Model the fold of this input.
Amino acid sequence: MTTTQSTWPAVPDHDTTAATGPAAEQAVLDRVPRGLLIDGHWVDAADGATFDVVDPATGDVLARIADATPADGLRALDAADAARHGWATTPPRQRAEVLRRAFDLLQERREEFALLMTLEMGKPLAEARGEVTYGGEFLRWFSEEAVRIGGDHSTNPEGTGRAFVTHKPVGPALLITPWNFPLAMATRKVAPALAAGCTVVVKPAELTPLTTLLFADLLLEAGVPAGVVNVVPTTTAGDVCGPVIADPRLRKLSFTGSTPVGRTLLAQAAQNVLRTSMELGGNAPFLVFEDADLDLAVDAALAAKFRNTGQACTAANRFLVHEDVAAEFADRVTARVGAMRVGRGTEDGVAIGPLIDDRAVAKADRLVTDAVERGAVVRTGGHPVAGPGTFYAPTVLTDVQPGSAILDDEIFGPVLAIRTFRTEDEAVAAANDTEYGLIAYACTEDPARGQRLMETLETGMLGLNTGVVSNAAAPFGGVKQSGTGREGGAEGIAEYLETMYTLTPDPFRRTKGAQR
Ligand code: ADP
Done:
């Protein structure tokens, strides 16, 4: 994979040639607000505390920002609650136009956002540009959905009454986002919430909060009223979110992150009977059948595995390849992976950026070491890369044996692990042998087999002969312990709406003296 192969939809005709280099980096960092956003104002934390945000490619401090306390979290909820009624009653067209303006502003400032994401998260700049495109589409899509919140009207089966089904904003929402897609994870939650008429408190990941702060500033410029969007970066997520989740004014929790944290949050949300949307971990199988188009399968495999340096919940985690084509598939992916350039995401031609931190490198290394001890063969890579920065070499493993931890744990790194199979039944059983069910990929030229897989694979999403499925217009989400709810598509706005049913007597029978 080269960096020109962005795995997101093509970038539209906006300037993509803006400068990189120290001056451009400092200029974008200077534009990032350093405070918490509460009720339309950038403010310090209640105790004045701050924390540093670091470039994972160099270890350098990028910015020092306010570190929210539990009191700040509740102040943010106060603001969201106070703004709740005004925003819910703002005409849908007006809410739509604010989101559309945000989309337009993001297009104008796309290079700034892309560079900032590369700085704080490490992804190659070409992929960061792709994320601006993808993340922006949630603003455009939900600006279009805001004016299509419909309902229903019917005569009841008995003919004695009229039923109305209407939809209302669920109320103030807490949105907790992860670090791997700093912009898209924010837009994917904020845009449908605002379109539906909900106010929000956003708790971005402490490793990558700068993009959310810059995005919040853009939302203010786009006309989002004070209190509608509040942002509280913090190093003490549990302490800050706990009281907000326990507060009866909160009505919705949307979370993207690990399954263990998701379980904890679901338990907390149960006390307050909150509506929840949970996008949790994955362990995506990637199936290559004997009838696959191998050119296509290799391209799809590399996109599904190495996008974001493997740090995506949709990343292919286990490659299950038919034994007849396994050797050729392994040779071809090894040649491509061995040629991938590793480096800081701002450098030309880099395909593999740093992992987010030391822990991520240690995890990738532990999983590879375990697999090798159990019999796997390292075809390329298989080791950390010397610093500065937290890099792991892009790796291909073959002959991965059952029982290896790499088949069960989410790798979240650039390691492509291959096992073989003989029959479709065996492949499907192996693919489903996990507590997760976010996404699966399959390459086959047999349409009937493709249709069978749609029914037999236990997954919320399936990439059939493709390595990237994410799209703002489609429902993203998982089954089993990969979560509940969907983001994007028509389903995405429904997560922020309550359904209300009203019954009235048959108006003809009710009118005094009226006879039918
Ligand atoms: P990852 O392993 O990808 O960092 P996490 O699930 O740890 O995923 O984190 C995802 C998001 O959840 C981050 O914003 C993080 O700060 C937040 N988070 C982690 N623990 C808690 C918690 N106990 N309560 C609320 N948010 C949390």
Summary: The domain at 284-464 is CATH 3.40.309.10 (Aldehyde Dehydrogenase; Chain A, domain 2). Confidence is low (pLDDT under 50) at residues 1-16.
